[in-house]
Specification:
Blueprint lengths: L1 H21 L8 E5 L3 H7 L4 H22 L3 E8 L7 H19 L4 E6 L7 H12 L7 E9 L1 H18 L4 H7 L2 H5 L12 E4 L18 E4 L9 H12 L8
Parallel strand pairs: 1-2, 1-5, 2-4, 3-4, 5-6
Helix pairs in contact: 1-9, 2-3, 3-4, 4-5
Length: 257
């Protein structure tokens, strides 16, 4: 009986090592965007409360970031809470905010991770906005991974905010707005995005089988590669991640050409 129970784990470990060996380490993504989707559906499968699904999803985030550090990924952007999610019931939203706050506290304990907040802090309760500000201001002892936390985030809103900030900046400098409009470039807007100064994502992963962006990094993902995985986020395994990386390293990136 014990041998039968051990065999799946042995086979899993063998497959994981095989996937690792198959990766072209010279072509690994430097920045990965992840849409952590499927928490509620995962809970529903087990007739469990929604809160259990969100907690399992939060636990998976820490596991996933550990994999990224092991594999030398430099930047991860996590889509944790969209502006559309703010329309959920007050009870679920309060519960979800609490789980996100606890997740941020755990990130704060990792001295090798730096964190940058993306989104509209005015949409969040004060305690959550304060934790995001505190975490963003903190300097890691030795950075191994930079994590962008998208909470209260919307892709269209980000672009609007960038253009608004660009215009305010031009007015403050006494620039001619008409001339700015004539000379406006992609780089001008990129300088005011939430991810300013960071590389665009090389790979965007979405779990749960959905095949759409839902407003995630609309500007930055123009030339990203996309990988859609059937697994619900809490059930996303390291082998699923390695498959995504294997698929990515085997592609010929064209950057729009």
């Amino acid at each position: 009986m014990s041998l039968r129970l051990e065999m799946p784990g042995i086979l899993y470990d063998f497959y994981e090592r095989r996937l690792l060996r198959s990766l072209d380490t010279d072509r690994m993504p430097k920045h990965i965007g992840v849409m952590v989707d499927g928490n509620r559906r995962w809970a529903k499968q087990f007739n469990a409360p929604t809160s259990q699904g969100h907690q399992a999803g939060a636990d998976k985030i820490h596991e996933f970031l550990g994999w990224c550090k092991e594999l030398g990924i430099n930047v991860v952007t996590l889509y944790m809470l969209s502006t559309d999610n703010m329309n959920r019931s007050g009870e679920e939203l309060d519960m979800l905010m609490g789980i996100i706050a606890n997740t941020l506290d755990q990130l704060d304990e990792d001295e090798h991770i730096s964190v940058h907040a993306m989104g509209a802090p005015e949409l969040l309760p004060d305690y959550l906005a304060d934790r995001l500000n505190k975490l963003t201001a903190r300097t890691p002892v030795r950075e191994k991974l930079h994590v962008n936390v998208a909470v209260g985030y919307g892709g269209r809103r980000e672009i609007v905010d960038a253009v608004r900030e660009l215009l305010h900046d031009a007015v403050d400098k006494g620039a001619d707005i008409g001339k700015l409009a004539d000379e406006l470039s992609v780089d001008d807007i990129s300088r005011f995005l939430y991810t300013r100064g960071q590389p665009d994502p090389d790979l965007v992963i979405r779990t749960s089988g959905e095949q759409r962006l839902s407003g995630f990094l609309m500007w930055q993902s123009a030339y990203s590669e996309f990988y859609f995985c059937e697994a619900l986020w809490p059930a996303f395994r390291k082998v699923d991640f390695l498959r995504a990386l294997r698929d990515y390293t085997g592609r010929q990136r064209r950057f729009g050409s």
